[in-house]
Task: structure prediction
Amino acid sequence: MDYVCDNGGSWLEQANVLPVAFAQVREDARLDYEVARSLGEGARVAMVASGGCTVALLAGLANVAYLHFVDANPAQLALTRLKLRLLETAGPEERLAVLGHAPHLGRAARLADELAALDLPRDALGPIPVLSRIGPDHAGRFEFLFAALREALHGCMQPLDVLLSLGDPARQADRVAPQTNLGQ
Result:
């Protein structure tokens, strides 16, 4: 797996050292966006920080006067604060690169600067070598899980696509029977 921490071991052991659980929000942020947009001027919004994606989206709404985000995990709060700061300090292409969606040669230094500006420790989001290599949006425990799943399922993509396209549960069951590749 490309997302290797320096602790060796399985992907699970590697992911275990990461403080961020979810680096990206996979729920539909448009629902929260539409609800917040419908609140009218001076809206006050409270929400879970999670990966910070929805918070960053709602921060751009003109009618939201106050946006309060909470999370039991301090690393999730740090990631959310980073994403909000990047909205203020970087354009879209730079944000994508810093977060790991495009190459960025100076990612380690940029992250160190941004975290320092937020008065956060350098390792608030995880080990700097990992963050600089893959970006904060790929350095969550669930992102490691998804990477491991992609790797494990790599040779099964066509059969999985067929399985998921079927609407009949009986036909789906046939595709995952013990004697099939997907059933093993």
